[in-house]
Amino acid sequence: MDLVILPMLQYQKDGRALLGLQRGVSSFVRSFVLETLSVASRVSSSAERVLNTVGEAIVPESLTRHHSSRQPENVIDGISQGVNSVSDGVLNAVRCVVAVPVAEYEDVGSSGAVRSVIRAVPVALISPAIGVARGLSKVLLGARNSLDDGSIRRDEEAKFKNVV
Fold first, then answer.
1. Degrees, nearest 5: CA angle 66-72-73
2. Domain spans in the chain, listed from the N-terminal domain onward
3. pLDDT of res. 62
4. Fewest beta carbons within 10 Å, which of 10, 42, 105, 153?
5. Does the pLDDT of residue 137 top 90, yes or no?
6. pLDDT band at 10 (very low <50, low <70, confident <90, very high)
7. Does 36 have pLDDT greater than 60?
8. CA–CA separation, 86 vs 104, rounded Å?
9. pTM of the model
10. Rounded distance between C-alpha atoms, residue 157 and residue 13, angstroms
11. Can you spell out the DSSP letters for 104-144?
């Protein structure tokens, strides 16, 4: 829409259609990038939820700690939250593969340690993937929020729109 309307308005205003075309293209590209980042973030967040569901179906205990749902304010904050999410996923996998079998070995013996290692293999595969999906979502949200200051406010309003 901006590709057509802005050049026409600029031409009607002062006869400089090329300036209007430049503004229209700029507005279109900005809108396109923002929407692409939003959709990619939603896809990544959905992948995280699917992996969490699969992981909880395989291993009944929770695979990840509960994370704050605070949106990153900018791309630096997004990268920081993303790195934390990835490291949490990897550390959870390490805990399941190393720490739990050691505790089982101390409590039950070698048979308990072997069982817990076998149970930990799916967690070792899924937990880092959950962390990467969550991290990617945070980085993409941070990039989007850097480009569009009002997006956090609009997301919060949309979240509580249907709450009575």
1. 150
2. 44-159
3. 55
4. 153
5. yes
6. confident
7. yes
8. 26
9. 0.74
10. 36
11. HHHHT-HHHHHHHHHHHHHHHHHHHHHHHHHHHHHHHHHHH
Mean pLDDT of 13-30: 87
What 8-state DSSP symbol labels residue 60? S
What's the rounded Cα separation, in Å, for the pair 90 and 80? 16
Report the SS3 class of residue 6. Answer: helix
40-49 own/partner pairs: CB under 8 Å, 24+ apart: 40/140, 41/137, 41/140, 41/141, 41/144, 44/133, 44/134, 44/136, 44/137, 44/140, 45/133, 45/134, 45/137, 47/133, 48/130, 48/133, 48/134, 48/137
Per-residue CA distances from 132 to 53, 80, 124 (Å): 15, 13, 13
Query: Which residue in this structure is represented by tokens 């009944």?
Result: 60
- By C-alpha distance, which of 131, 141, 45, 127 is closest to 85? 131
pLDDT value at residue 156? 66
The closest alpha carbon to 7, from 22, 28, 30, 26, belongs to: 22
Among 2, 1, 51, 10, residue whose Cα is nearest residue 27: 2
